[in-house]
Amino acid sequence: MINDGDKFSGVDLIKAIDEITSFDTRSYVVPNRAQYDITHMTPTRFSKIAVNWFDVASSAGALDTQLREKHFRTTYRFAHDYRIPGFTHEKIVSDAYKLDYFYRLATNGPLKIKGNPDDFARILDDAARVSYYFAQYIWAFNPDARFDYAKRLHPEYNWGHVLAFLLGVGYRFHPKDVYQFVMRHNDPSLSKEQLISEFDGQLEFKKWCLDNYGVDTGCLVLCPEHQEKLRKILTKTDTPYLVQLFDKYVRRR
User: Fold this and answer.
1) 145: which residues sit within 8 A by CB, 6+ positions away?
2) What pLDDT sits at residue 251?
3) For the chain, which terminal residue's Cβ has fewer other Cβ atoms within 10 angstroms, N or C?
4) Distance between CA atoms of 14 and 95, rounded to whole angstroms?
5) Residue 93 contacts by C-beta under 8 Å, 6 or more apart in sequence?
6) Quick check: 46 and 105 in contact, CB under 8 A?
7) For the segment 53-69, what is each residue's pLDDT rounded down to a tens digit?
């Protein structure tokens, strides 16, 4: 297991994730057979269900596919490929849901614990720390995805935010969209009215895309900059396509 302050490689991280998610918490938690309860599952089982339930296909990638199939000519791609040595985007999604299993156990209590409660608490603590190490690993190779909010994330107190970041990366959301998804709606400086207004704006934009152009943005939460980009693509008011091609393949060489 990686400890605080340790330098670690991708191999070390993979081993740490495998170690923590190999725990069968059913030996510590009395299963509750209520509908939708996860205490009777293993982390791996929960991850498989979550991946199938939410569909591992990226909403960002699906948006690019729709634009291409509907013949909207653009060189822009909403799906973002991160540098993640040793991982695929699909593996990040799978591992993030395995770690999310522990987060849900920690936050959806109360749980009936059998055995030593300190041992179970230590497992949850390790899962929170490994989640944060996972995010650190991604930030190390993708500094554009770090932003200032990364400095404010605490491995334990902001565990849910860390997992949301990992899933955003796994689903190939652009770093600015991940920020919008993870932290913008959890910014203490924003009032409840502002948050509701932004959420309503997201839904209104999603409906506008679908009703007018048959384009479904799925669960993708676009930052204002990317909302405007998509609006220009759909209304064909973006930079002329030939200019985009020139910028992409000639000017930026």
Assistant:
1) 82, 138, 139, 169, 175, 178
2) 62
3) C
4) 9
5) 51, 56, 167, 170, 171
6) no
7) 765 567 899 999 999 99
Q: Which residues contact 130 (CB under 8 A, 6 or more apart)?
A: 1, 2, 13, 16, 17, 20, 99
Dump pLDDT digits (tens) for 25-58. Answer: 878 887 776 656 788 888 999 999 888 876 556 7
- Tell me how long the chain is: 253
The number of CA neighbours under 13 Å toward the Cβ of 69 is: 10
76 CB neighbour count, 10 Å cutoff: 16
d(CA 71, CA 74): 9
What tokens does 152 get? 């404010």
How far apart (Å, rounded) are the C-alpha atoms in residues 78 and 209?
Answer: 15
Q: DSSP 3-state assignment of 65?
A: helix
